[in-house]
Amino acid sequence: MLACPRCAGRRQFFNPQLILPAGASNQQVDAAIEFTSDSHIWALIPHTHLRGKSWEYRLVQPDGRSEVVLSVPKCDFNWQTYYHFTKPLAAPKGPRLEAVAHYDNSTGNKANPDPTKEVHWGEQTWEEMQYTGITFTVDGARSATGQQQ
Q: What percentage of the chain carries pLDDT values higher than 70?
């Protein structure tokens, strides 16, 4: 949840309960955050390890309407970057940002250290993450210098 003006800045959301079954070639793992104050999203960084395959981010409104705001169809562990939006995305109070990552824990993934093992969350490269860095501002919040954003 992103609720208070002091929360503006860089944060993260993730799913530490991910499980990638041995041999799974397209395992989906989801995470989401909800905006409880009018906000703007400036940038996202999807982060996985060696089994990361793709990412999609959707902004889902309370009435169910949704829009894809970022699609990364081919992940590469050696090329992970912040995706800065040309125009910040408005996230008025109420919507949630859903992150859907897909993983390849099969023998078809040449970077996979061991496709015979079930994989869980971990900080080591041979483990896996479903992690999103997010840069955002809360509308009307004051910065550390007292300036209104």
A: 89
50-65 pLDDT, tens digit each: 999 999 999 999 899 9
Residue type, 148: Q
CATH of 5-138, one of 2.40.50.100, 2.60.200.20, 2.60.120.230, 3.40.50.1820: 2.60.120.230
Categorise residue 30: left if φ over 0, alpha if ψ from -120 to 50, beta otherwise: beta
CA–CA separation, 124 vs 144, rounded Å?
Answer: 34
Alpha-carbon distance values, 121 to 45, 57, 81, 98, 130 (Å): 18, 20, 21, 19, 8
Of residues 112, 134, 142, 113, the one with CA closest to residue 55: 134
Q: Are strands 39-47 and 27-34 parallel, antiparallel or unpaired?
A: unpaired
Strand segments, DSSP code E, in the chain are 9-14, 19-20, 27-34, 39-47, 52-60, 66-72, 83-91, 96-103, 119-120, 131-138
Distance linking the first and last C-alpha atoms of the chain:
20
Looking up tokens 């799974």 gives: 24
* d(C-alpha 48, C-alpha 53), whole Å: 8
